[in-house]
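User: Predict structure, ligand zinc ion.
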Amino acid sequence: MGIMHTLKRLALGDDSAPTPDLGRNDECWCGSGQKYKRCHLATDARKRSSERAAARRGPARRAF
Ligand SMILES: [Zn+2]
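Assistant: Predicted complex:
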């Protein structure tokens, strides 16, 4: 934990930006032509948060 945890967070980028190179007002990556914030932003955020939750739980508790 501590410094390593902080460095990992920095490497992964800001939590509020699921796709760091794509702005909220840019066209979505899926090609729908909609703005990202109107399209996949919520989906990506949910997916990322569930991935983070899974990572936090870790493999040790998968026995349950
Ligand atoms: Zn999309």
